[in-house]
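Researcher: We plan to redesign the surface later, but first we want a full-length starting point. Tokens attached.
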């Protein structure tokens, strides 16, 4: 059976600050992120399945990404957990939706986080192929499964 790739795109708004960075991104600022998720697999060949002919239902993929990625990061302030430990930022009003992560929240690291989250929840037979996270209209990070070690 042939392998097919399907892609679903998402958008979310988030702010972040880069701890210790030597440029303006050390300050809290926001982005309109665009995320493209591509999965691969063989279309379901069971004619009795309601998903017959699909690698994965786009609606199911949408729900999975929305609940595990978009709903987590949308309209959040993403900060390295070291900010919390040092209480370096005045969290509270207007920062009530703060997501602390164990990494510097660059596009690259956010993308690695997203890849890890998705690889754990994709259904059997469906593989994460690649991700693209666009931070601005001219800047983005990419993740490919083929670039990852065994």
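Model: Full-length starting sequence:
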């Amino acid at each position: 059976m042939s392998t097919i790739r399907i892609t679903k795109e998402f958008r979310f708004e988030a702010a972040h600050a880069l701890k210790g960075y030597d440029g303006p991104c050390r300050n809290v600022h926001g982005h309109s992120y665009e995320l493209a998720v591509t999965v691969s697999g063989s279309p379901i060949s069971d004619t009795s399945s309601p998903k017959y002919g699909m690698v994965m239902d786009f609606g199911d993929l949408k729900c999975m990404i929305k609940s595990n990625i978009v709903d987590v990061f949308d309209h959040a302030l993403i900060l390295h957990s070291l900010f919390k430990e040092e209480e370096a930022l005045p969290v509270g009003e207007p920062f009530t939706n703060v997501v602390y992560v164990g990494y510097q929240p660059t596009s690259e690291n956010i993308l690695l986080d997203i890849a890890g989250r998705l690889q754990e929840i994709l259904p059997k037979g469906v593989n994460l192929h690649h991700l693209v996270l666009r931070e601005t209209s001219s800047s983005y990070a990419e993740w490919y499964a083929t670039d990852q070690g065994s």
